[in-house]
Amino acid sequence: MKEIAVFASGSGTNFQAIVDYFRNHKMIKVGTLFCNSPDAGAVRRAEKAGIPVVLFTKEDLYGSNKVLNILLEKRIDLIVLAGFMWLIPPKIVSRFRGRIVNIHPALLPKFGGKGMYGINVHNEVISNREKVSGITIHCIDEEYDRGEIVFQAICDVSEDDTPATLAEKVKDLEHRYYPVVIEKLLADDNHVQFS
To answer: Is 104 marked active-site?
Structure first.
């Protein structure tokens, strides 16, 4: 059985889509939710699904090895970022290189980097009069939104779209594709580098 650790900071809709997809999977399970906010909706979703939750602080992530040690103890095969707002520190990236994926609500390399998340991204896409937007699933490295792109899906941006309506289109793509891509990454040991 391969085990996923999901990192989330917010309401947890992508986390829920992942949990639902892998609920009765024969080879993959969502083992743990890691969260930096005890009030996050993702925590309530994990508790309802019976998935263990690890709450942590900035000190736990950046100043100590607490989070890294828990990941290693649990023998996590893939770290999945699902609306997690903090940069993963180099000590975790180096130990899990090629085994940490993120989903970004735009078509990288456009509209990525620090501060480019959520509605900020959709505002930029609309302001720049883009004809298409979508999602990017990528491996992460030590910088925001820079790692290897493993999958993209596109949606049209219509003239009457607002940042809110575009956000809904993109969220639909996230829920539809993120669990499937996670499954394919874990099935393809040659693509996700297990070190």
So the answer is: yes
Q: Would you list the domain boundaries of the chain?
A: 2-187
Question: pLDDT tens digit string along 152-175?
Answer: 999 999 999 999 999 999 999 999
Collect all residues with Cβ–Cβ distance below 8 Å to 95 and sequence separation of at least 6: 68, 71, 72
Which residues touch 120 (CB under 8 Å, ≥6 apart)? none
**Catalytic residue of the set 104, 122, 138, 175:** 104
Tell me the C-alpha distance between 79 and 61, whole Å: 14
Q: Which fold has domain 2-187?
A: Rossmann fold (3.40.50)
What is the distance between the alpha carbons of residues 97 and 7, in angstroms, rounded to a whole number? Answer: 16
For 114, other C-beta atoms within 10 Å of its C-beta total: 9
pLDDT reading at 193 higher than 50: no
Q: CB neighbours (10 Å) of residue 143?
A: 12
